[in-house]
Amino acid sequence: MAQINSCLKYIFIVFNFFFAIVGGVIIGLAVLAHFFANDEVEQNLEDHTAGVIVLYAIGITTMVIAIVGAYGAHKENKVCLVVFQTFMVTGGLVMFRIAIPEVINRPKMEAMLDVELRKMLPLNRAEKKIRNMLDLLQTHMHCCGLFSYKDWEDDIPDSCECTEVVEKYECQNINYRDFYQMKTKSIYSEPCFPIILHYVLMVVDIGLGVFFFLAALAVLGSVMSSIMICQLRPPKRSSVLLATTTISTPEPPKYQELERNPPPY
User: Fold this and answer.
1) pLDDT (tens digit, 9 = 90+) per residue, 113-129?
2) Is the dihedral of CA 197, 200, 204, 206 positive or negative?
3) Sign, CA torsion 259/260/263/265
4) DSSP label at 251?
5) Which pTM value belongs to this model?
6) Measured between alpha carbons, how far is 201 from 213 in angstroms, rounded to an integer?
7) Can you tell me the distance from the alpha carbon of 182 to that of 218, in angstroms, rounded to the nearest whole number?
8) Angle at CA 223, nearest 5°, toward 20 and 208?
């Protein structure tokens, strides 16, 4: 009976153990998405449910595939290895299908984000949840407006004000109208758009790294499972026609009868 190479078997089991850890990490990220979501996210949970469900699905599927592959290698079960290989090939193609268009679109990300954010202007007339989100962003990132403080027109929020605690950030004095009176306010000079763009690109780069990493794991797993499946196939036996050669053995010669009378000398 064909057997898998023991060294390859143990390497494959360790590979699947590592693959299961990756699935556990993805599930952990999905769990953290619930606990560390802010109040605004909790109130609009339906907008984020799809992403969390996708994380759970990817993590659980990854762990199940890893268990099937490790079991198939340990028990030398050809069916489990074929199932594992099928998922690896399919998963690798899906990862490449998602990652490659994102790589192509990454240079266009700044222009696309610029167009989307300009739809929110002016900020003082935007929806309440957008204003609350920007207030939180301006307070923590020490910026004002998306592209300029003028995005708020004459209704500049308190989150734009520079305080003594954050003197290291650049501030500027501006004049604005408040109930027909001109006032001066010290606000952050840096707009929020470069900061938002930095974090968006960072998230995109991390996502691309994860997708290509999973695709590389899928290719490696597919190659190893293919080798083991080949090793489990019984060796092909060529049908050899055994021709039985009939050898005719002549009958032993009859012994001649000795003359009873010996010849005369």
Assistant:
1) 888 888 888 888 888 88
2) positive
3) positive
4) P
5) 0.66
6) 18
7) 64
8) 60
